[in-house]
Amino acid sequence: MTDTYEVEIDLPHDRDRVWRALTDPKEMQTWFCEHAEVDLDAGRYDFWGRFTPGVPGREDGYRKIVDLEPGRLLRFAWPWRGGDSIVTIPLDGDTRLNVVHEGVPARATPMEHVPSHLWMGALGNLRSVLDTGHPGPRFDWSWPHHGGFEAEADIRAPRAAVWRAPVDEGWLHPEAPLRDRRAPMTKTSRGTSGCTSACRSSRSLPTSASLWHGSVIRRRRC
Q1: Which residue from 16, 69, 138, 162 could staple onto 73, CB 3.0 to 4.6 Å apart?
Q2: In this structure, are 50 and 95 located in the same domain?
């Protein structure tokens, strides 16, 4: 039994700019992975390091491109939890990026991470890089994944709006509607939980929305 995960995000940027961020190794390293080597002509889309689940080394970072339409479609194979998963990234117009990660083996336990955890953070960072030139917090998969986490961010929003987002509007829930909430002033909001710091950052963010604002997350079982 396998699962399919789908994550969408609005990216109000030129298609060529988004494609460059998806396929240029130096740009990939700002929002997606620690290391990358890409050769579209040779069908290679390699990435590895501590920002990739499993923390693969260079020898395990090979990803074969199985379908390519420059500027429109990228599809590559990704060995995941002993299975042969496929990631499909089509570009829809100039405003919507869709990631479909299929063929993912079902989790043995509810505690195991799933691709949507990775893609929500990665696409949020992609938009942040495109919007501001800076990524948001990046999850370090080399840290022990237990005991909680600590995160810090500078959020451009009134204090009351920052409080409402997780408490009243429920954006922490994966089924919650996510939307852009522009605000005219800047405040700093800090939050700490647990004792293991796998993700820490302090950035000036353009909106008061979560890192995944404008995104839609779906899961299908096959």
Answers
A1: 69
A2: yes
